[in-house]
Write a structure and sequence with these properties.
Layout (H helix, E strand, L loop, with lengths): L7 E6 L9 E6 L5 E6 L4 E6 L5 E8 L5 E6 L8 E6 L3 E6 L4 E7 L4 E7 L8 E6 L1 E8 L4 E7 L7 E7 L7 E7 L3 E7 L8 E3 L2 E4 L7 E4 L6 E5 L3 E6 L5 E6 L6 E8 L2 E6 L4 E5 L8 H4 L6 H5 L6 E6 L12 E6 L5 E6 L5 E5 L5 H9 L7 E2 L3 E3 L1 H7 L21 E7 L4 E6 L3 E6 H9 L13 E4 L5 E5 L1 H4 L7 E6 L4 E5 L4 E6 L6 E5 L7 H4 L1 E6 L4 E5 L4 E6 L6 E7 L4 E6 L4 E5 L5 E5 L1 H9 L17 H17 L4 H12 L13 E6 L8 E7 H14 L3 H6 L19 H30 L3 E2 L2 E2 L21 H21 L6 H11 L9 E5 L5 E4 L4 H8 L8 H5 L25 H6 L6 H5 L19 H18 L7 H20 L7 H10 L17 H33 L9 H6 L6 H30 L44 H23 L30 H15 ...
Parallel strand pairs: 13-17, 26-30
Antiparallel strand pairs: 1-49, 1-52, 2-3, 3-4, 4-5, 5-53, 6-7, 7-8, 8-9, 10-11, 11-12, 12-13, 14-15, 15-16, 16-18, 19-20, 20-21, 21-22, 23-24, 24-25, 25-26, 27-28, 28-29, 29-31, 32-33, 33-34, 34-35, 36-37, 37-38, 38-39, 40-41, 41-42, 42-43, 44-45, 45-46, 46-47, 48-49, 50-51, 52-53, 54-55, ...
Helix pairs in contact: 5-14, 10-13, 11-14, 11-21, 14-21, 15-23, 21-23, 21-25, 25-26, 26-27, 26-28, 27-28, 28-32, 30-32, 32-33, 32-36, 33-38, 36-38
Length: 1521
Amino acid sequence: MSGGSSIVVPMVLWGKYAPTHCISAILSTPDMKNIITGCNDGQICIWDLTDNGQLYPRSMLFGHTTSISCLALGSNQTTQPYIVSASENGEMCLWDISDGRCIEHTKMSQVHTDMVSYHFSNTKDYRLVCNGYYPEVLIINPLSFEVMICLSSKVVPDWISACCVLRPATKDDDVVLAISNSGTVKVWTLPSSEIKAKIVFEDESKQIRCLNAQTLTCCSANQRTVLIVCSKYWQIYDASDFTLLCSESNRVGERWCGGDFISVDRVIVWSNEGKGYLYKLPTNLLKGKAVNGADPRSSEYRHHQPTSPHAYYILDIYSEQQLVCTPAMVFSKSMNGRKGLLRGDSDGRVVIWMLPEVSEKQMTLVRQESFDRLPALPPKTSTTLQDIWDSLYKYPPGVLEGLCAEDEHHLRITSTIYIPSQGKMVCGRQNGSIIILPATQSIIFQLLENNQISKDSISQQMLDGHDGRVTCLLYPFNESTRYEPQHLLSGGADFSVILWDIFSGYKIHTFTVHGGELTQMIVPPANCNVRILSSICSVASDHSVALLSLKERKCILLAGRHLFPVHTIRWRPLDDFMVVSCNDGTIYVWQMETGHLDRVVQGITAEEILNNCDENAAPMENLTNPSLTLTQALKRRNFATFRNLAQQKLQSHQNQQQLSQGPKADYVKPTGFPMLIQGVRTNTRDPDAHVVFFDTESLIVQLLTEEFALLSPGELEARGLLTPVIERPSGTQPELSEAQQKIAGLIAKAKEKADTIGQKIQDKVQTSGLTVGGRDTSTASRGSIISTASTTDATRPDSIRLQTNITMEIAQIFMSCLHAWGLDPDLDKLCLNKLGLLKPQSPISFGLLSRQGHMSLMLPGWHKRVCHSELADLKGVTVSKIRQGDVKSVSFAEPPQPPGGSVSGKPTLLAQRMGSMPFDDEELYSSDDGANNDDAFDDSLPVPEKHINATALQQETGIFSTKARWQISSAVTTQHLLSVISVANTMMSMSCASFLMKSRRKKKKQGVVTGHAGIIVTDVPDGDNTDDMLTMQQAQIKQGWSLLAALHCVLLPELVGASHYKPPLLEMLARRWQDRCLEIREAGQALLLAELRRIGLEGRKAIVDEWSPFLPMYVDPNLSLLSDAQKGEEEDDDEDDESMMAGDLPAHKVSVSFESRRKQATAIVMLGVVGAEFGHEIEPSRRKHEEPKKGGRKAPEGFSLTNYSLARHTSKALTFLLLTPPSSRLPAHTPIRRAAIDLIGRGFTVWEPYLDVSSVLLGLLELCIDSDQIVPSVTYGLPLSPVADACRTARHALSLIATARPAAFIITMAKEVARYNAQAQNAQSQHTHLQNLVLVRARQEIQHILELMVEKMPNDIADIFVETVDVVVHCLDMGQLKSKGLQELFPAICRFSMVSACNQTKRIWVGAKNGNLALYEMKQHSKCQLISAHQGPVIAVCVNPDGKYLCTFSHVDSRLKFWQTASSSIFGIGSQQTKCIRQYSVPKIEVTPLTNILKLVRLVWIDNKTVVLLTVDGSETKFSI
């Protein structure tokens, strides 16, 4: 799922076998609340440890490609629960363990075997002290993976086998102590002051007899004793001169693996058998003050002065199982003094012993017993993942659970592929059979409670052909449309590749060219030669690579001389080369056409050749280990697969073609599919678990596209999609805008194309009525490729209908899984009965995707922790209790649904809150057909055991959805809420937005059940009654969706309860402020504002304090977002333009400056939002500054009138983003710029004092030039191109500014017009330069805003009427104004009584508020002439029909004056002056402060000499000249 910008919600179907987890590293957090284990396959598992010793697995993190070698803490700040992992190929990742996000990752040339987190005296946070397969000790900053200091050796440099850091009690310096493989001890001292040098050499070194030490530890309480553990013995040294104090050999058959100090004179050492031994050291041999004052020894102990350590306890689990490899073990001291030994085994078992305090007396007893029988300590906890799986009430769902025949349940799925274009999932199994089934239906069957999809209703297809397991699948049409849509390829352990016809189930051809099982199949890039284009490339475990032609049905090339497993395949299509890289670093260059081996290269040349291959090709990293397919596929999907997938969807494909040919593409291409399914496994021997990825943006785009594709021409016209939408009569509107033509054509084409494809598929299926694998495919039951049910409306093509169903089913699964069930029982009923959502059967395992294909998947069983705290004892609750409605006995269990009739008449919580209950609630909550579908307890009262389990499961699911899932983490909450709200809003804007409407409607009419979830589109027989009912139903459904959105946006925190609710991440929401998908953008804005309101004044103050340091004014100018990038500076940002504001995931470390610029971008938006939405509470008011009353809203600090520094800085940053020309650092039309535009508009009243208003307005107008061409009049809600989006945002901002501060807008524009006219009169020569001014090019937009203002706020306009007319005259085309007149070109302004235009004399007369009369000649750039007319505002002006006389009136001096407009001189020569020829006194008109001056009087000429004065009270008075 592409980049970081779209929201992707993964859900996992784990299946009934837990993933393999062979632990290679283990770590505990300082509070011992979490255990982290890393495994040999590269995954990391996070476990929650409760106080009573229960272990619950929380999530599994994917991202490393090889075994995890070591783990360390990444931060000691409580707000950052970070850990760092390092793997055997130099990859390092920084993870947030609360939600499994990968925050930073890198690949180093050094491989670490050990990392220690240490807080140095001169650093703010932890640094990692690393050693490994290199001769230095590296000190690394875990947050950026920069090497801060490198500790090197002058004397005998060698790999360091172990090291530790200590701070001597007397000094502030930190000392690093290390031992090399050859047994040299080295000491480095790091002063507490800042170290300038990058490389530090050792202070002293000494050779001792310790080869290949496992660990080196210094006792924290007594720094003079050092413990060094080697495999054969462990030894205690004196740190001052490294003399040996005492030593102990290993036990028979065991090797020591590590050790640590428990206290001054006690150590714990563990062996490769996974046992821990506690030893007492001989105190008389130890040195140091701490030893002497330790604890008073018993006289008996002093008496026989021991000379060697003695064991007094053994930690063992005594299991029968043999260990496959050495367990990972570590000693952990928690902050509250608990001491534990942690062990992780090869079968994924985590064992924890809590160490007891043993007194001297007990030790003496042990010493007197025989040495062999040490007292053993049983572990406090011992758990594996499979134990957790087995402890669940129901195994986690798998894709095929309950769908295959009884004897096939044990068969494991060995490979999976999803075909989005058909909504099919293909699973290969270990017996060689391949099953094809509709993905959405099988997921609904597995995850949700429904009574319409059963095992039999899901059509399956079975392909049998392989001997032994199916190892890989490929559907080439997914990758590129040049392949046939019916071709499916499968590779097996029987060395063969089979080509199938997926529609008929027919085996077309079997390729048997490899000599080992198939590991991978890929598609060559699109620019190869024609013969290669129709072939695919397969790789097998005998290290051979083949090109198999699907057209010629033969092998074109078999490359089989590789000595080592194939690692990568790259292409040089233009040279006809295929470059195969093996994992020993050798590369083989093959000629594809002839099959010659061109050359074999090693070393640096090999790397250069690989790097110079054509990068359009999809790199397939690491083919050697198929278990790693996940990370690669995710990484790879970012490039190739996604690009290709996007091409081959039915409508979207048409859409793209249409739009890419047009001169301006108005829409952004949807990058992916609403749903993708990926097989996932941690180890090659595991069966596939399945991750279902939902892409929110694609889902919304797809829903909207299909909504419009299915409209009839009549409906399209009704919505204004097929007739030109004439917005304003004045402008010259093209007959049909480009965008509309495109859309109309697109829909017609989509229909046509869909029709033909549907027809083709149908013919295919009918002609080949083959029965495959014993299952009949020709009678494809509902939901397979062809729906056999006849529809009354035969004009709608089948395939589109199928398409819609898939998208609707995807939306149904998505919303059913994400909805917060159980918080509002009435809303739940409405969701079930009206919206067609389905309840989850059991808690759902969600996931979280972070950058570069890293992801975390929740493990089942984690919710048990919350459930146990919520319910004292789940199993003790009997169903009968619940049956009686005694819900109190089960806290927070879901209240059971009442049987059909007795529906509570209480409106939902939301409705009560919002006061909106327009419908009869009885109707709203009862289901259409009277029977309540989900009466879970319909059985007789004696309850069998199975049902108790089912009830317990139901309660767990209830607690999961009301409590547990909201406390997973803030990032997950953010994603889920954004998704739910945006999809609910989309559904609300659609016409058939219920998932069960169609089937229910038909059922009512004909008494026939027609499948589930709107599978069949039916037309109900006409009749007024049914129409009314439908409208009613539509309205109810829309209200249902709006209640659902409101619940998640506003009420959720309160209903879930603060202790269970991790609030959404404000910065993630801030980055979505201008997301390219409108629905997500609006959801993000609503959520951010709701959250800012919820946290209250204090919370907002904290936010302002947190983000204000990142405002660009305060940051180092080199890193600042606002510094102009120096010329010629090469930017190393390989990110796309969106990335500055892209999703949720911190950027891959491009540069410190990138991260800091990203922070600044977020800070500008965050403070912009706080300022714009909460800063206006303190508008400059006329009252004095008294302290605001309690309870009154108060502006955040920094945005108030007295302390305005932040408002000033924020407004500066926003204008910079608006006005600065595009550069490499800040390209044009990026989301951050759109956000700035939007916020300038929203908070204009706050920013105005600090802005250069005219440049801001001109900047916004510049973006709006040609807006009618750029922004389609009908957007369908689809994402627009960045240019169109910026234009739309700028238009909105301008209208906000104009309505918030009309005077500022008009006066600024009038000043600009005056400046322009002056320039125009002076400089005739630079005519072209003037034509390019924004003021000229944006005339239409200015006119549009003026119309809006006249409509919305006429009184404000009247106050500055002359300036308004200045701007109006500038906007209108002079030629048209002369020929058509003002009334036709700008009717809005002619509503005012103080303007009058004369078509004879080509003049416009305007009365001003200061009593002047203004005259405009209809000439280019003419100046307005002012004549003094009245003592008060001129509120009515009217010119007589022949244009010779003018009448004006003012209510202040109560005079009506007649003016002669032109003196009648011969031939019109001489001065043409306007002079007053007559005036009348008029009875005074009473004016109160409430009177609307604009409607006070009107002047009407009834002939050339007589005028009538009409007043608001209805009186008429005639006056004549």
